[in-house]
Each structure stands twice: as C-alpha cells, then as structure tokens.
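Design request, tokens follow.
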C-alpha cells in the first residue's frame, strides 16, 4: 500500500553532491547547466548556487569554491541577507563528492525529486477534498496507469 509522507521529494545531500561536483570538477558544470533547471532545486541556497554556477559557465569564468563563494556573498548582500555562513555552506556541497563520474545520475535524481514535488503539489490541489485513504487509492491508481503506459512503450 502507498504511504503518503510530508515533504519526501527533496534531498539536501543530492543537491549538495550535484553542486559539489561542479565545484570540484568544473568541466562537469557545463553538463549540469545544460541539463538542470534552477527551479529543480528545493533549497533556496542551492538555487542561488546553481544560478551563480550557471552565470559563471555562461560567462566562461572559472568555477571553484572561492569564486562561487564570492559570487554568493555578493548575491546575498544584494538581497540584504546575512551571508556569514556562505563559506561553510559551499564547502558542505563538496564534502561527499568523490568524482563527477555519475553526474547524469545525480541530475536525474534532482529532476525526479522536482517532478515528485510538482505531482504532490498538483495532487494536493486536485485531491483537496478527499480523505487520506481516498487520496492514497487515487494516487495508486494513477501510478498503476502510468506503469502500464510505460510498459507498453
């Protein structure tokens, strides 16, 4: 039976790792920017970091922990936000990255999490009047229908 959970469609670790790959292996940043969208990131700081990386790629500028940190500090200042922990947050992105070999798998994970949030948002609007059990049954039916379609193609 399907279990509904609150806010299951995000992963700080996955977002950190994908952005960390860009910081440690800058050549992968081009791939990430070509295949990702800013709104795929759940966390505001990660959206800002992706935007900074994307802008640096578009401008053919160096991408590393220092340059991205500097740009993020400037971005946060322009938003009148205290950026005392920016260096820590940027270093946190890269702490678990071993290599960029699986960058496309990370991109797919981030996209799937984003799609899950979108479905969750739409289903909460469409299913707003239903009880939890009715929502579970309706979502299971939708998922089963999508599996049948995928298996036919």
């Amino acid at each position: 039976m399907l279990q509904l959970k609150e806010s299951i469609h995000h992963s700080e670790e996955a977002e950190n790792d994908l952005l960390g790959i860009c910081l440690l292996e800058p050549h992968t940043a081009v791939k990430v920017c070509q295949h990702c969208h800013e709104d795929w990131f759940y966390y505001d700081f990660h959206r800002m970091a992706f935007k900074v990386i994307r802008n640096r790629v578009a401008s053919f500028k160096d991408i590393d922990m220092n340059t991205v940190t500097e740009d993020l500090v400037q971005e946060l200042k322009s938003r009148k936000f205290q950026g005392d922990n920016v260096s820590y947050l940027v270093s946190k992105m890269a702490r678990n990255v071993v290599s960029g070999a699986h960058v496309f798998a990370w991109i797919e994970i981030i996209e799937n999490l984003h799609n899950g949030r979108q479905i969750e948002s739409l289903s909460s609007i469409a299913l707003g009047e239903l009880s939890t059990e009715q929502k579970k049954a309706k979502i299971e039916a939708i998922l089963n229908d999508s599996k049948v379609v995928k298996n036919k193609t």
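Comment from the thread starter after seeing the answer: thanks! DSSP finds seven helices and no strands in the chain.
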